[in-house]
């Protein structure tokens, strides 16, 4: 089987009410557009998520399913999915269904029209469908992050992203790194571009994060990424002949 042109990596934890619809939407958005695979990474769900995905393997040839033996978090699930991906470019979606797979062809088109040094196309939720408190917390966090990291990215929390696999795997790995991909890509010497995307209300289940919990972890992570940026060293390399 030839390698796909695009791998769609979707982390999921206790999302039995969302994964099959999300899979169907992703397949519908990409079939006939390019060769692709969908890699779901189940983060040791305690509900029927993994069983539903395993059942879908028989009817969806583009589907691959990875299962964590221990719950390890979203960043680890994304990284394991990217490591397993067979395409040179990877798109990500959150497993809760709030990201719209219909945006994926547009991200690929933006990539095809963009310069070669843009290695990350980050979704920008211009019309967020979340509670007022969640939107306020996100706006506050994005403002602080933007001032400290100067990554020129209005929305790093959006799960809809498209990036080069090799560039991603070259980044420093740590828990919650998926929230800082624009700054980390820029630290590595690449450019990033924000692309407006759709955002939808959660169809089923509940959010796995609280505003307070996200804020407490985010402060520590933000300081760590800022430190990484100050310690970055890059130089051009040439090989003698």
From TrEMBL:
Entries under InterPro entries matching the protein: Glyco_trans_2-like, Glycosyltransferase_2, Nucleotide-diphossugar_trans
MF terms (GO), sorted A to Z: glycosyltransferase activity
UniProt keywords, alphabetically: Cell membrane, Glycosyltransferase, Lipopolysaccharide biosynthesis, Membrane, Transferase, Transmembrane, Transmembrane helix
Glycosyltransferase 2-like domain span: 7-168
The protein's name: Dolichol-phosphate mannosyltransferase
Lineage: Bacteria, Pseudomonadati, Pseudomonadota, Gammaproteobacteria, Lysobacterales
């Amino acid at each position: 089987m030839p390698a796909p042109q695009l791998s769609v990596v979707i982390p999921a934890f206790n999302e039995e009410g969302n994964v099959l619809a999300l899979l169907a939407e992703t397949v519908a958005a990409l079939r006939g557009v390019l060769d692709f695979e969908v890699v779901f990474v189940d983060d040791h769900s305690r509900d029927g998520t993994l069983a539903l995905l395993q059942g879908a393997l028989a009817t969806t040839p583009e589907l691959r399913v990875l299962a964590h033996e221990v719950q390890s978090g979203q960043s680890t699930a994304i990284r394991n999915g990217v490591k397993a991906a067979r395409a040179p470019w990877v798109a990500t979606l959150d497993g809760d269904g709030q990201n719209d797979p219909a945006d994926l062809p547009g991200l690929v088109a933006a990539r095809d029209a963009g310069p070669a040094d843009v290695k990350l196309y980050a979704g920008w939720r211009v019309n967020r469908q979340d509670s007022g408190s969640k939107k306020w917390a996100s706006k506050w966090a994005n403002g602080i992050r933007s001032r400290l990291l100067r990554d020129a990215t209005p929305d790093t929390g959006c799960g809809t992203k498209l990036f080069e696999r090799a560039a991603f795997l070259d980044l420093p790995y740590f828990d919650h790194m998926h929230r800082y991909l624009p700054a980390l890509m820029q630290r590595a010497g690449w450019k990033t571009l924000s692309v407006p995307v759709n955002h939808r209300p959660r169809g089923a289940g509940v959010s796995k994060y609280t505003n307070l919990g996200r804020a407490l972890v985010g402060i520590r992570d933000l300081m760590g990424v800022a430190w990484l940026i100050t310690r970055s060293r890059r130089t051009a390399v040439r090989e003698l002949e």
